[in-house]
Amino acid sequence: MSSGNQVRASHILIKHQGSRRKASWKDPEGRVIMSTTRDSAVSQLKAFREDVVSGKAKFEDLAARHSDCSSAKRGGDLGPFGRGQMQKPFEEATFALKVGEISDIVDTDSGVHIIMRTG
Fold first, then answer.
1. What is the pLDDT of residue 2?
2. Catalytic residue among 10, 44, 69, 71
3. What's the pLDDT band for 1 if we cut at 50, 70, 90?
4. Mean pLDDT in the chain?
5. Is 17 exposed, middle or buried (0-12, 13-18, 19+ CB in 10 A)?
6. Which helix (H) or strand (E) element contains residue 43?
7. pTM of the model
8. What is the dihedral of CA 107, 36, 28, 78, to 10 degrees?
9. Is 6 a catalytic residue?
10. What residue spans define the domains of the chain?
11. Which fold does the domain 6-117 belong to in CATH?
């Protein structure tokens, strides 16, 4: 992994009205997603981030419960990836983090994310 062209990360995705696909494993009909504004998605993520940083909650537990990505069942783990495999903003944010760091809010076509670099 130390080659520098691969990283490993976990994330929590919250989908909202502006998301490309308005459905997820926990909201197959997209009812919640369609009524979620980007602002409310962002404030949920900010609260999750606070809880992790303050030690109140573990990133993987929050991901497992709340993430709209199917990676939720792995605690948000996306495994290792290189450049060109993820949406650009997601890739750039992940490569900019140090291992163990958590990103600020990252916007992609999928929704809003916080990302924790794990490798």
1. 46
2. 69
3. very low
4. 96
5. middle
6. helix 38-53
7. 0.95
8. 30
9. no
10. 6-117
11. Chitinase A; domain 3 (3.10.50)
Would you state the structure tokens that stand for residue 84, as one six-digit string? Answer: 């060109």
Q: Does the annotation count 87 as an active-site position?
A: yes
The structure tokens 């450049």 sit at: 83
42, amino acid identity: V
Q: Active site residue: 11, 24, 44, 103, which one?
A: 11
pLDDT digits (tens, 9 = 90+) for 41-92: 999 999 999 999 999 999 999 999 999 999 999 999 999 999 999 999 999 9
Confidence (pLDDT) at 3: 53
Rounded CA separation 34/39 (Å): 13
List Cα–Cα distances, 83 to 17, 26, 96, 101, in angstroms: 28, 29, 12, 19
Say whether 69 is catalytic: yes
Q: Residue 32 — pLDDT band, cuts 50, 70, 90?
A: very high
In this structure, the dihedral spanned by the alpha carbons of residues 76, 50, 104 and 26, taken in order and rounded to 10 degrees, is 40
